[in-house]
Amino acid sequence: MIPSFAQIRGALVAAVLASGLSACASLPPPTAELAEAQQAIARASDADAEQYAAQDLASAREALSRAQAAMTAGRDDDARNLALAADADADLAHARSRAAQLDAQVAQRRAEITQLQQRLDQEGGR
What we know:
Shape: rod-shaped
Distance between the termini: 115 Å
Number of helices: 5
Strand content: under 5%
Oligomer: single chain
Number of strands: 0
Largest sheet: none
């Protein structure tokens, strides 16, 4: 049996509608990812990453800037990926900054212990 024009037209309309619906089901713009990256950069800055992890923080800021430009240009997938990279770089900057601060505190405590041991040795030798 040969399909009629009405059947072919109906199949084409259904295909076009399905295609249109799948386009509507694509991912939303990456505004949440951009906001999360901005917050991660702020956390890293608050943790003195400028001092202890400047390169990682600069990389995060650069990726965020590129993500914003990609979103403005309508390249949502690129914007999403760049925002996720910015978030990761900022988290790394935060972690390295906190590690450096903790290392400094440990060094300070060790110096204090050494001073106390020296005082005890001097008082014991009197």
